Amino acid sequence: MALLEVTGLRVRYGKIEAVKGIDLTVDEGQIVALIGANGAGKTTTLRTISGLLRPAEGTVVYEGTKVHTLPAHEIVALGLAHCPEGRHVFPQLTIEENLRLGAFLRRDREVDADIEALYARFPVLGERRARPAGNLSGGEQQMLAIGRATMSRPKMLLLDEPSMGLSPLMARTIMGTVAELRDQGTTILLVEQNASAALTLADRAYVLETGHVALSGTGRELLDDESVRRIYLGEH
Fold it and tell me: What's the pTM?
């Protein structure tokens, strides 16, 4: 069943069209990956889905609701969270304060329990919960950014370049966390520069080129595609 349907999406920055009529579908319980070169429109697509940008044309339907005209905080309230490229933690606030900001729309009494569960998942954050987030390493900040996004208890998570700038070991840790989130029931739309890692995880994937969908298929199909292997995996 489709949790997210994007149809005919066009997004412009002034006169420049960054996204040129793409269609994509994310079924509940899946990891769907978007891969492509810099400037292909991947981040713009995520920012439009989460309400940070407005489309010039097209629709974004999440769980049967048209969300492309809604403000970002209302989209979060519907169960769709966005973990942006570059992490964007609040450096002067503590780790715990960052996490509590992720739960700002919640009115239940289980926020404390969810924070403790996150500390169990990422022990290094628990050990440093009272420290400013700006003191963390890049990988630790990425853990915090993902944790903060999950504090809204989203049904679907948009993840933009979670392994960017990380050591190979930390990147594997983060991608393992992405797989765990999916296994625990969170649907994920993943933008990832490491095409091999993304396609290995993905149930389905789309290759974006200059604002349009050039290829789509299962993760395995695209891993086996000769042009994908040549252009995105660096194989000859």
Answer: 0.92
